[in-house]
């Protein structure tokens, strides 16, 4: 009886310990050796692929758990149980990288780049940077990474979409805010990650196309530090800039306050650079140009706040707020030539656009892990946009013997509040790999628009012996409210039915409700009648709904680290419906799509991998396509919506091959993609007889496809001081449109080849040489076969020299050659030259005095040129940009490290 009692008493005191092991980026670590010791027991386990480990039937007191993995620091923890507790969840254990020194082994070189499955690691200690360099300058030195003039970061040819610091978003992931505020001296490692999203990460199944993000791993002595900067500058032509930034990092707690104001077209939160930055559509070609890519003259003000903290061992909280105000004045001229069978309509315009854009954005992220290991994430985002727009156009439109001369004025006030809430719940199971996840996204959007339109012109008809003159005037006041409410929900159950296989059952639901109310007052008739006169034909009360559900199965097979394959199939019924209550009209379109997905990734060896993927998805028409009215607020360009449009079904097949040669520091990547779209939404244009008026509506058609191929290669030449980057792009578009009810095929071929050569000589000299060639060839089939070929060649060079530790000289120059464009202003060949000198002083060179001259030849102001060839339209335009100015600025960097004990 005594022995039995002792046995039962011992069993009643058995305990369980479990938890997760992650790296500094928050990625779960597999293969970590976890050792548990106590006064009565010793046990060793290895973490699973999800980083999970557990010890059952733990006996004894003075319990300690240690974690070890090759290449990482060893972590040890003492464990104590609460009174009467039988289980304990240890908070996530973070293993940091470890530089080990082994006796009789000499480390002669730090490996600069390490390539893993979905991550490229850049060891910053292996690269040389000037003291006090910001992250943006440091990124320019890393192989495979380019930074454009407006601050956009490209890694392996793709734009970086988000930035994290130690696994947490910094200012909601804003790339520019991070790269132009974080000092490079504080950073231990840069990780470029193929990110499939939080939902895919939790599921463990990767069957979507990833985006590229950057995770910044801080040095150990920089995890508790205060830093910031203050900048002020003034120059000729009333140029000015000022900025302020204060940041505090404290072992996972992050607080940042940033603000800036400038009229130098400089990107937000930047303390200023010789070239500035902009916000147009970004391409990799911009990386090697030294022009300022922002149209018009801008005054930008911004203010931001970011807070992140582990408020409890199980709860992570992040929040940020930002406000920007951008005032823009743009002047320009354009031609739009529309080619019809019997006539050519050419619209020549000179215009000025004024805008005042105020944008508020507040985000939050709450993540909590319950005691049973379930996880809840809540991410609300609220934004409010208030924009004033003013357009003033003088235009001349010709069509054979009919022409119009007149003016068009359009002023509007737009208010756009938006709320988006993302909720994710992940259910934990004891069985490794089994997962149940639910996701709900709620969106509430409203858009109020108040618009004044004045259209005045004289119609000149020269088809008769005596020209006929007709004066046309229109003044409208438009008040419109658009509302969009949507919900997206997804539930996923993942079951491992073998050590290498995962089977997922997934159901997705999407519902979008749109509504619009529009009233249009004819101000001329209101003045004539002495009372408000509304145009019934332009009034709208329209409700639209898009509803889609998708049920499918996904299977993923991962026999080892070298191979992963997935295949899936889904059935997706969808319904598009529209309702005009006033006219008692109802439109509906229903369809069922069969959506297969498939792909594999095969790592042929440690340095080569190959992947193939297929993805299909629906694209619903936007509101302007379907609104069922004849919109003639612009009398020369009438828009007619088509409420019977179907949703597009897009298919994408892509393959990618990557090769890393670590010993030589080389990287090669090539990608080929084929996209084809069923029920493609295209324009359908008509020219009204004996006039300069064009009317556009929309319809569905098949036959659209495009082919896209690119490659990139970077390698050191002769030594690591000389780096070569080569990038090539080839795009082919088989585009469709309708002109006078006739199908028009546009075949467009775009080829680009660029090279960048970077040289650095110790701490004395840096230089970069660029070359880019671009060919744009477009062929039309209607009204007759037409071919347009435009070419552009860009050559550039930049250099920076350090006379000593305190004086820096820099200059950059680019020359562009254009030919083949329709308009003479498109074929200009500008030369851009920038130069500056910097003086560093104070302790640790924390102060920087800068004298700079921007666009010394005053030619950037003519660089805002654009061309577009779609359907039967040829469009070419030139906008003004910021020209030559000189500026002096002072930058003070602030740093405070914790006192050493």
TrEMBL record:
InterPro entries to which the protein is assigned, alphabetical: CarboxyPept-like_regulatory
Listed SUPFAM superfamilies: Carboxypeptidase regulatory domain-like, Porins
Domain of life: Bacteria
Keyword list, A-Z: Carboxypeptidase, Hydrolase, Protease
Keyword Acyltransferase: no
Molecular-function annotations in GO: carboxypeptidase activity
Protein name in the entry: Carboxypeptidase regulatory-like domain-containing protein
Organism in which the protein naturally occurs: Sphingobacterium psychroaquaticum
């Amino acid at each position: 009886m005594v022995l039995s009692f002792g046995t039962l008493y011992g069993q009643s005191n058995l305990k369980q310990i479990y938890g997760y092991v992650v790296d500094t980026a928050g990625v779960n670590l597999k293969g970590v050796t976890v050792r548990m010791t106590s006064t009565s027991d010793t046990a060793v386990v290895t973490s699973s692929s999800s980083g999970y480990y557990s010890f059952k039937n733990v006996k004894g007191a003075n319990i300690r758990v240690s974690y070890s993995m090759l290449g990482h620091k060893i972590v040890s923890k003492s464990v104590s149980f609460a009174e009467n507790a039988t289980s304990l969840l240890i908070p996530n254990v973070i293993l940091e990288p470890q530089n080990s020194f082994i006796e009789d082994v000499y480390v002669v070189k730090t490996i600069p780049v390490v390539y893993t499955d979905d991550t490229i690691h850049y060891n910053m200690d292996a690269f040389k940077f000037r003291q006090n360099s910001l992250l943006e300058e440091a990124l320019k030195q890393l192989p495979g990474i380019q930074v454009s003039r407006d601050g956009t970061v490209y890694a392996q040819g793709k734009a970086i979409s988000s930035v994290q610091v130690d696994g947490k978003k910094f200012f909601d992931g804003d790339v520019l805010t991070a790269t132009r505020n974080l000092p490079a001296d504080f950073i231990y490692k840069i990780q470029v990650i193929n990110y499939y999203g939080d939902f895919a990460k939790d599921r463990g199944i990767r069957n979507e196309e990833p985006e590229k993000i950057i995770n910044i791993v801080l040095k150990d002595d920089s995890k508790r530090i205060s830093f910031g900067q203050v900048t002020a500058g003034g120059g000729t032509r009333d140029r000015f800039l000022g900025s302020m930034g204060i940041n505090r990092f404290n072992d996972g707690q992050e607080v940042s306050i940033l603000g800036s104001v400038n009229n130098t077209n400089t990107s937000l939160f930047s303390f200023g650079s010789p070239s500035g930055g902009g916000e147009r559509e970004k391409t990799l070609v911009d990386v090697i140009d030294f022009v300022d890519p922002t149209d018009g003259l801008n005054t930008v003000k911004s203010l931001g706040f970011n807070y992140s903290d582990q408020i409890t061992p199980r709860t992570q909280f992040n929040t940020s707020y930002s406000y920007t105000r951008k005032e823009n004045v743009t002047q320009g001229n354009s031609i739009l030539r529309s080619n019809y069978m019997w006539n050519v309509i050419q619209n020549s315009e000179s215009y000025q656009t004024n805008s005042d854009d105020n944008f508020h954005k507040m985000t939050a992220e709450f993540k909590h892990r319950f005691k049973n290991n379930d996880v809840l994430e809540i991410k609300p985002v609220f934004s409010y946009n208030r924009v004033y727009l003013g357009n003033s156009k003088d235009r001349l439109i010709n069509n054979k013997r009919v022409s119009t001369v007149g003016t068009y004025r359009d002023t509007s006030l737009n208010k756009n509040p938006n709320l988006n809430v993302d909720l994710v719940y992940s259910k934990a199971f004891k069985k490794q790999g089994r997962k149940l996840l639910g996701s709900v996204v709620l969106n509430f959007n409203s858009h109020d628009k108040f618009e004044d339109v004045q259209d005045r012109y004289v119609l000149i008809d020269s088809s008769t012996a005596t020209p006929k003159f007709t004066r046309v005037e229109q003044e409208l006041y438009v008040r419109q409210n658009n509302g969009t409410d949507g919900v997206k929900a997804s539930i996923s159950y993942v079951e491992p039915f073998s050590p290498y296989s995962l089977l997922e059952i997934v159901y997705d639901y999407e519902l979008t409700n749109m509504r619009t109310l529009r009233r249009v007052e004819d101000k001329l008739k209101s003045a004539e009648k002495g009372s408000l006169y509304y145009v019934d034909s332009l009034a709208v009360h329209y409700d639209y709904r898009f509803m889609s559900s998708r049920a499918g199965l996904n299977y993923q097979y991962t026999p080892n680290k070298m191979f992963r394959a997935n295949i899936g199939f889904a059935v997706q019924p969808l319904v598009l419906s529209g309702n005009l209550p006033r006219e008692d009209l109802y439109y509906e379109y229903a369809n069922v799509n069969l959506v297969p997905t498939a792909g594999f990734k095969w790592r042929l060896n440690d340095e080569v991998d190959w992947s193939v993927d297929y993805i299909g998805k629906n694209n619903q028409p936007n509101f302007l396509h379907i609104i069922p009215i004849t919109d003639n607020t612009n009398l020369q360009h009438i828009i007619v919506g088509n409420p019977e449009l179907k949703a597009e079904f897009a298919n994408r097949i892509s393959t990618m091959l990557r090769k890393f040669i670590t010993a030589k520091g080389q990287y090669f990547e090539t990608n080929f993609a084929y996209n084809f779209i069923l029920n493609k939404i295209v324009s359908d244009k008509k020219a009204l007889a004996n006039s300069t008026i064009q009317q556009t509506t929309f319809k569905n058609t098949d036959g659209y496809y495009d082919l896209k191929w690119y490659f990139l290669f970077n390698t050191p030449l002769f030594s690591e001081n000389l780096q070569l980057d080569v990038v090539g792009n080839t795009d082919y578009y088989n585009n469709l449109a309708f002109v006078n009810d006739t199908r028009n095929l546009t075949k467009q071929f775009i080829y680009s080849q660029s090279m960048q050569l970077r040289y650095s000589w110790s701490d004395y000299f840096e230089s970069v040489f660029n070359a880019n060639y671009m060919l744009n060839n477009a062929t039309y089939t209607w009204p007759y076969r037409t071919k347009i070929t435009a070419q552009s060649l860009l050559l550039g060079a930049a250099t920076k020299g350090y006379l000593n530790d305190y004086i820096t000289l820099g200059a950059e120059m680019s020359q562009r050659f254009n030919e083949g464009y329709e308009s003479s202003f498109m074929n200009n060949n500008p030369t851009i030259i920038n130069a500056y000198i910097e003086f560093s002083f104070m302790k640790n060179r924390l102060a920087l005095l800068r004298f700079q001259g921007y666009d010394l030849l005053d030619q950037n102001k003519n660089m805002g040129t654009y061309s577009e060839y779609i359907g039967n339209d040829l469009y070419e335009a030139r906008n003004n940009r910021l020209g030559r100015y000189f500026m002096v600025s002072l930058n003070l960097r602030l740093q405070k490290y914790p006192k050493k004990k």
